[in-house]
């Protein structure tokens, strides 16, 4: 079974600049989600996925596809079995679930998310 990208994150070295640009250019209205420095621009009623806006931890700009998985631990095991590496340990998102970041053998950053509202 194919697991599609269900969410996208934009990591910006200048979060406010990116937020203003996306609002002015595309009409996005990102709202704070869980913390004030993590914003979500919902896709609305049309096709698409919600997009998270966050400050880049290392100062590098990037877009990160996020894949929803049934089990974060199993997905990380599969990543490692296929030559990938976990680069950010699993962390909890209160009321949403758990997430982590991995890279494929070529170094492409991918987010993984396990939905669990009881977190």
Low-confidence stretches: none
**Strand runs, count:** 8
Return the CATH architecture of the largest domain: Roll
CATH fold-level label of the largest domain: 2,3-Dihydroxybiphenyl 1,2-Dioxygenase, domain 1
Explain what you see.
With 119 residues, this protein is of the alpha+beta class. The protein has two domains: 8-56, 2,3-Dihydroxybiphenyl 1,2-Dioxygenase, domain 1 (Roll); 69-119, 2,3-Dihydroxybiphenyl 1,2-Dioxygenase, domain 1 (Roll), CATH 3.10.180.10. Helix content is 18%, strand content 45%. The protein has two helices and eight strands. The protein has helices spanning 15-26, 72-81; strands spanning 5-12, 31-33, 35-41, 51-55, 62-68, 85-93, 97-103, 109-115. It has an eight-stranded mixed β-sheet with strand order 2-3-4-1-5-8-7-6. Strand 6 (85-93) and strand 7 (97-103) form a beta hairpin. The longest helix is centred in the first third of the chain and has 12 residues, at 15-26. The model has no long low-confidence stretch (mean pLDDT 93).
Q: What is shown here, in short?
A:
This protein has 2 helices and 8 strands. With 119 residues, it is α+β, with helices and mostly antiparallel strands. The chain folds into 2 domains: 8-56, Roll (2,3-Dihydroxybiphenyl 1,2-Dioxygenase, domain 1), CATH 3.10.180.10; 69-119, Roll (2,3-Dihydroxybiphenyl 1,2-Dioxygenase, domain 1).
Helix-strand layout with pairing:
Elements: E1 5-12, H1 15-26, E2 31-33, E3 35-41, E4 51-55, E5 62-68, H2 72-81, E6 85-93, E7 97-103, E8 109-115
Parallel strand pairs: 1-4, 5-8
Antiparallel strand pairs: 1-5, 2-3, 3-4, 6-7, 7-8
């Amino acid at each position: 079974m194919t697991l599609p990208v269900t969410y996208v994150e934009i990591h910006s070295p200048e979060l406010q600049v990116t937020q203003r640009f996306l609002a002015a250019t595309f009409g996005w209205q990102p709202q704070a989600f869980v913390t004030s420095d993590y914003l979500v621009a919902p896709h609305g009623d049309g096709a698409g996925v919600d997009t998270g806006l966050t400050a880049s931890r290392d100062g590098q700009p990037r877009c990160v596809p996020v894949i929803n998985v049934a089990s974060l631990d199993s997905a990380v095991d599969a990543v490692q079995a296929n030559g990938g590496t976990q680069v950010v340990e699993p962390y909890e998102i209160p009321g949403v679930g758990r997430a982590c970041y991995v890279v494929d053998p070529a170094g492409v950053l991918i987010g993984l998310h396990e939905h669990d509202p009881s977190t």
